[in-house]
Amino acid sequence: MSTLPQTHPLLDGRTASSPLVRAYRGERGSTTPVWFMRQAGRSLPEYRSLREGVAMLDSCLDPAMASEITLQPVRRHGVDAAIFFSDIVIPLRLAGVDVEIVPGRGPVLGRPVRTAADVARLRELTLEPEALEPIRQGIAATVAELGSTPLIGFAGAPFTLAAYLVEGGPSKDHLGARAMMHADPDSWRDLMEWAADISAAFLRAQILAGASAGQLFDSWAGSLSPTDYGTSVQWASARALAAVADLGAPLVHFGVGTGEILAAMRDAGADVVGVDWRTTLEEASRRLGGDTPVQGNLDPALLSAPWPVLESAVLAVLKSGRAAPSHVFNLGHGVPPDTDPDVLTRIVALVHEAGGDSA
Ligand code: CP3
């Protein structure tokens, strides 16, 4: 049974029967719920004006600002979920890692973690419960405004965090991380264990403070062979997911280019699998054995296509999603910053009109 407080939105009647939570639990309702990865952010003028002069990670640690940014896309688009405005590197920063987000580039570390000694030094850093207070406050303020719309909490999966830690910044193929995995398996295991525990602490704090679901982003796991994923990575994601399983909130596991490892990602302990645009939802469901709810997977490139093209692509995703027990509509990855926000609003309306059980 859930160990959440009775006043939590999942237990006090606010979100348990929302379209999103029901779909995450495998029930198909009268409409397909929809939200967008990176729905908060640069595609919204109200976001750009609020963020002016404030560094990305500072905005995440200002509870009032993080809450307001989280609510912006819910008000504007009428999506079925909010996702907490934060970043996968926030728990690293809160544990004392020197990390910044460089606009247009991504997370950059002051000191990459490359050797056994670097990993040992990293493992001395701990994420103290008090450090997560701004996150708890931001979640509480958001949930108080959301009413029956569920809030999704999230964390980076250990491999994606390790990819940034080892490379020291964004990289194309995460070769440094994949090399450490094989060249120094002991350090790799220690690094992944530390990352799993940091990730779990961040996700747990968000769910306990009021998030009704959790999503683990393993954005870069698609660079791994299925064998390496199964041997050197899956256990760490399983460790992170297991550390929040007692809370009873539905858990989503998403990656990019992860078509070959969808079942392994589910088996790490997820209730729902997020799918990118490279695999149809029908094929994803086949690979998952047909009883796992799916989330996805419109190609973000289609957002700039003429409406008739986009409309038929949205309907094709909905049709393909019927192969799964339930489906939450999303993109196959995040909203590109130059997206016209009105297009997102129009997609939400179309998905809602198209229906769920009758589609
Ligand atoms: O709306 C939401 O989805 C919630 C907020 C959210 C952000 N980052 C805000 C953000 C979420 C869920 C993330 C997760 C995240 N961060 C991931 C996993 C998801 C994915 O996209 O694969 C990853 C890999 C990161 C690391 C990261 N942070 C990158 C690659 C970037 C982009 C850098 C850039 O400027 O293009 C960031 C910065 C970031 N995180 C922005 C936002 C809104 C843009 C910063 C800005 O607006 O100045």
Ligand identities: coproporphyrinogen III
H and E order = HHHHEHEEHHEHHHEHEHEHEHEH
The major sheet is characterized as: 7 strands, parallel
Q: Give the neighbour order of strands across the main sheet.
A: 1-4-5-6-7-8-9
Number of strands: 9
Protein described:
Its EC number is 4.1.1.37. By secondary structure, the protein is an alpha/beta fold. Helices cover 46% and strands 11% of the residues. The protein has helices at 19-24, 45-51, 56-60, 63-77, 90-95, 116-123, 133-146, 158-167, 175-183, 185-209, 226-245, 262-267, 281-287, 307-320, 341-354, and strands at 82-83, 99-102, 106-109, 151-156, 213-218, 251-255, 272-274, 294-298, 327-331. Strands 1-4-5-6-7-8-9 form a 7-stranded parallel sheet. It is globular, with a radius of gyration of 19 Å. The mean pLDDT is 97. The structure holds coproporphyrinogen III.
Topology:
Layout: H1 19-24, H2 45-51, H3 56-60, H4 63-77, E1 82-83, H5 90-95, E2 99-102, E3 106-109, H6 116-123, H7 133-146, E4 151-156, H8 158-167, H9 175-183, H10 185-209, E5 213-218, H11 226-245, E6 251-255, H12 262-267, E7 272-274, H13 281-287, E8 294-298, H14 307-320, E9 327-331, H15 341-354
Parallel strand pairs: 1-4, 4-5, 5-6, 6-7, 7-8, 8-9
Antiparallel strand pairs: 2-3
Helix pairs in contact: 4-7, 6-10, 7-10, 8-9, 8-10, 9-10, 10-11, 14-15
Bound molecules: coproporphyrinogen III.
Coproporphyrinogen III is lined by residues 37-42, 56, 83, 85, 87-88, 101, 103-107, 154, 160, 217, 219, 334.
EC number: 4.1.1.37
Family: Belongs to the uroporphyrinogen decarboxylase family.
Main location: cytoplasm
